[in-house]
Amino acid sequence: MRANPEAARNGFYDITEEFVFPSPLPDCVGIDKNCTPEELAVFDLFHWKQDLNQFSAAGNGLVVTAIDVTGRVAANVAVSWYDPLTTDDARSTFAIAAEIR
């Protein structure tokens, strides 16, 4: 999001559990690619979600951005997973809020 602040300001990094990725995915690898800020956000989110699923089969992530009165973007990020070491079906969650500069 810091490398793509326009997309963060426009909410393109906001993602919920119900988010469906477009098909085909944008290909934003390489300096010769001319991805829009929105396409780059989709590309970033897809690979982030893939990384979460490699960490845990039920890994998931949510992002919500908001712009404060000074125009700065704040991002609330939550990552959740099922811990195989617990005996219940409760999800473990880690959440953080950060300012995008």
Describe this structure as you would to a colleague.
This protein is α+β, with helices and mostly antiparallel strands. The protein has one domain (5-100). Helix content is 24%, strand content 28%. It has two helices and three strands, in the order H-H-E-E-E. It has a three-stranded antiparallel β-sheet with strand order 1-2-3. Strand 1 (60-67) and strand 2 form a beta hairpin. The mean pLDDT is 86.
Walk me through the topology.
Layout: H1 5-9, H2 37-55, E1 60-67, E2 73-82, E3 91-100
Antiparallel strand pairs: 1-2, 2-3
Radius of gyration: 15 Å
Strand content: 25-35%
Helix content class? 10-25%
Strand order in the largest sheet? 1-2-3
Query: Structural class given helices, strands, pairing?
Result: alpha+beta
Sheet of most strands = 3 strands, antiparallel
Q: Could you list the spans in which at least 5 consecutive residues all have pLDDT below 50?
A: none
Return the average pLDDT rounded to an integer.
86
Number of DSSP helical runs? 2
